[in-house]
Amino acid sequence: MKRFAVIDTETTWSDAVMSIGVVTADSETFELLDKKYYVLTPFKNHGGMFSHALYVDGIKPDLECSRENALNDLRRFLAENAIEIMFAYNACFDYRHLPELSHLAWHDIMRIAAYRQHNPKIPSCADCHGTGRLKRGFGVEDIYRMLSENRRYRETHNALADAIDELEIMRLLRHKLHVYAEARIR
What we know:
single chain, alpha/beta, Nucleotidyltransferase, domain 5, 6-stranded mixed beta sheet, 5 helices, about 25% helix
């Protein structure tokens, strides 16, 4: 396996997917290789907590179309890139919203990033469970700030920008892909 993918979704108030961002990366270097961004109609008009971020920073979708067309294009894109492994931060959320991608092996970045034994940047004074997992402050924004030491970082809640940031979290953790085997959700 030479490549893997990281995905993020944003949803409407009624929990329908309104956007999907996905990036592919090299399995050894974690370098971003390719990306796709979809805005789903008519859901983009239904409103959601992060509707304002659909086109933030001039990000334009590769396709603005129905869910069916977007997922068909995404499955083709993943197949062309020989993607068999999918990563997401809080992957259960994205996995539940994208059953069309259930054929992939899904892994949760958070299951590695939020644990003291896998994240050397978690301070010794941090409040953790006996398992080593942070009790709080383990969202994307908190972990990205911790790893990058960029206190000004803000999660945009644009699906493509967030997928890129989640890949960066993986790169900053400096683990080989095999470490994520214990973070597999499916």
